[in-house]
Amino acid sequence: MSKHIGEVILDVHHISLSFGGVKALADISFNVREHEIRAIIGPNGAGKSSMLNCINGVYTPQQGSITFRGQTFSHMDSHQVAVMGVARTFQNLALFKGMSVLDNIMTGRNLRMKSNLFMQALRWGPAEREEIQHRQRVEEIIDFLEIQPYRKTPVGQLPYGLQKRVDLGRALALEPQMLLLDEPMAGMNVEEKQDMCRFILDVNDEFGTTVVLIEHDMGVVMDISDRVVVLDYGKKIGDGTPDEVRNNPEVISAYLGTGH
Amino acid sequence: MNTTFPRLLRDHAQSRPADTALREKEYGIWQSISWATLFTQVNHLAHGFHLAGLQRGDHVVVVGANRPRLYAAMLAVQALGGVPIPLYQDAVATEYVFPINNAEVRFAVAENQEQVDKLLDIQPDCDSLTHIYYDDPRGLRNYKQAGLFSLSALVHEGENAAAQAPGFLSAQIDACQPDDVAAMFFTSGTTGNPKGVVHTHRSLLDRAQAGADFDHLTHREEVLAYMPLAWIGQNIFSYAQWLYCGYVVNCPESAETITIDLKEVGPTYYFAPPRVFEGLLTNVMIRMEDASPLKRRMFQFFMKVARDYGPKRMDGQAIGLWGRLLYGLGTMLVYGPLRNNLGFSRVRVGYTAGEAIGPDLFTFYRSIGINLKQLYGSTETAVFVCLQPDNQARADTVGVPCAGVEIKVADNGEILVKSAGLLKGYYKNPEATAEVLTADGWYHTSDAGFLDVHGHLKIIDRVKDVGRIQGGANDGAMFAPKYVENKLKFFQYIKEAVAYGDGRDKVCVMINIDFDAVGNWAERRNLPYAGYTDLAQKPEVYQLVLDCVEKVNADLAADKLLAGSQISRFLVLHKELDADDGELTRTNKVRRGFIADKYSVLVTALYDGLTQQYIETAVKFEDGRSGSVSATLRLMDAKTFAPVGQAA
């Protein structure tokens, strides 16, 4: 791959998170470089989604700090994170099921709309012009993700694999610098997984978007990631290129089990 | 027609520069390209190709869907005296090797990454192929292969050159003569290598004109271009006739959005092979079965009204007041909305060609007020040989010879054609040319048929396929496999059928069920199934197919000529016949001989009277991987009927 991987843009520093007595994350540190595809993998309950939620500002870690583009935060604010150019998708799809694909992706533009609700409702002043501009961007995303046939279809009627694609589309509508993907390939068949891989690689390649993804399926991750962090029971047990991680004995035992 | 494609383009660009030539749906909006813009684009492309070294007479392969820039590229190549060769975009890469080597192709224009990948794959086998241009850059930014260029870059280079040599394109266009070769089409061919059918500007435009005059086409028509450009039908309708009439060709957004695009465009001139009409009807029927009882009853009632009065109305016969009233009400409540839903509201002339169309299917469309007609022609005749006049469309004939066509029937029943639209010859294949094109100018269609009492042509089958039953009760009877297969395929549950009987004592068929239709039928009966193979082998499905087979037999029994072609035994295949596995041609015609070899155990089992047979078949997936499907198939007897009017 010819892409240029840049400086560290996200640095997670000694993060610990617990829910009552349950330690979800224990002293986790890792960084993400610009333009890379960074995977967080681990078995069920390893703390992958919690990690993403800390970066995203959904959870506030009890200890540690997160540095994004030189600014250090002890806690991220979701709105603030979005403004800084970080978008995410959800493991269990948080789409508006009754709304069309187009409208769902349009909601991703919300942050970039200047006109207020009132103006939009009345299509008053610059609101209409603005909507046209945003629609144009949304159409580019629809084209990019090849979902033109479903533009007007309510999301709830689409198969799961396509809903995942719409979810990605909405995140892309934010024009993020960094994309957090929570199990983008979960519950998909092989063909849908291949499609999704291609889209993730294309987003990374064509828009230069940094991608942090959580995945369960080792095979997929190893193929598309530049570097991988492995979590197990809230602890970091591996970090490095896919090959390094694949040969790490701790990772092998976490995934395959060892005879004790 | 004493002109060429590029000259027609120039005429349109000069006489009506601002009129729309092409439309393409992109980013959700129909973007229009005027004749003047198109001409400019062709100018730049022509300069670009010229700089890249394209010579007069060079062949240029074009692979991709209907995209304005591919049309422009073809025009630019023709303007320079080159010959575009459109190839089927869904063909596997290896199928491109022969045409490219045969025609010593140096330049290829590909639509997108998918096509570029295929061309790069076969490039080592094609020494002549040095330049590959792509239209859509998506996914190609990291391709560093030498000889791979974007059309945009070519346009850009051409733009600079065009500024310095303003008279270049016109001079080139003037140099290109009507009798020069305009395009080459590779026929898929059921055996051996494909053959390059060479057409001149004159031959293509002569037929384009004949067809356009027959139906009084004007520059106001709207056409949706969605069939492969490599199919001569598409090429005539959306390229030759487009340039002759100057109407608007609309390019759909993607292959999946065609039904939506059809509705939005509302074409006035429409053509499709029967399977497209069949697919649309199946869709309607499936959705009607899910409708509320009231709507369903209304639909059924008015469809009966349509069957009673619709065809008469289309044929211009008198209908009583009551009939007119009922039909008028039906138009308001059912036919109008249905036509609109199908995207056929504005269709003035609709054609089906390429295969026989089922009488029910044909009547359905005509009865709801769509002027659907049939035509007869082939790649070698530049399509238009016979056409049905507006008021004389019948399901079992293909119309009357159109202007400039002479037809005669040879002693063996073969139809011979003479017209100005005949091929110049097969490329580098004088033997094959001599076989079909005799010195006195008759083209041998290899179709068997006859002109009926009204002067309409009726096709029975391919001459070489028409056989005789040998031995058994029907010894010596005529056997026309395609005739039998088509009768079966007219049932919505049957997608494909392959019939055997020539030189044998009885007729046996292998059948492919239509997965959508039968799947829906099964769901309605709470019949669980685990996929195509499982569904195909259900006893209930066999019973369903048996009913169809016996109906066909009853029908055949009434036919004097073909009563002996009744089906004695059949089986339902465990996999869909597929062009990727070589079982169908790229135009979806069954390759009977190939299938007989591939499934020889099944054919033997049919004739040996076995009741079941195990089979394992290798399959090729679209991405080139292969796997295998295995199943134990059931074989079944069908009832045959005594020929009508004879003692049993």
How would you portray this structure in words?
The complex is a heterodimer of chains A (260) and B (648). Chain A is α/β, with parallel strands linked by helices and 260 residues long. Chain A folds into two domains: 1-85 and 176-260, P-loop containing nucleotide triphosphate hydrolases (Rossmann fold); 100-170, no CATH class. Helices cover 37% and strands 25% of the residues of chain A. Chain A has helices at residues 48-56, 78-83, 101-107, 117-122, 126-144, 160-172, 190-206, 218-224, 242-246, 249-256; strands at 8-19, 22-33, 37-41, 63-68, 71-73, 86-88, 178-182, 210-215, 227-232, 235-240. In chain A, the strands form two sheets. A six-stranded mixed sheet of chain A has the order 6-7-8-3-9-10, with helices on both faces. In chain A, helix 3 packs parallel to helix 6 (160-172). Chain A is globular and about 60 Å long. By secondary structure, chain B is an alpha/beta fold. Chain B has three domains: 5-267, Rossmann fold; 398-463, Luciferase, domain 3; 467-637, ANL, C-terminal domain (GMP Synthetase, Chain A, domain 3, 2-Layer Sandwich). Chain B is 39% helix and 22% strand. Chain B has a five-stranded parallel sheet with strand order 4-3-5-6-7, with helices on both faces. A five-stranded mixed sheet of chain B has the order 12-13-14-15-16. In chain B, helix 9 links the parallel strand 10 and strand 11. In chain B, helix 1 (5-15) crosses helix 2, helix 2 crosses helix 6 (151-164) and helix 12 packs across helix 13 (321-342). The longest helix of chain B has 22 residues, at 293-314. Chain B is globular and about 80 Å long. Chains A and B meet through helix 5 and helix 7 of A and loops of B.
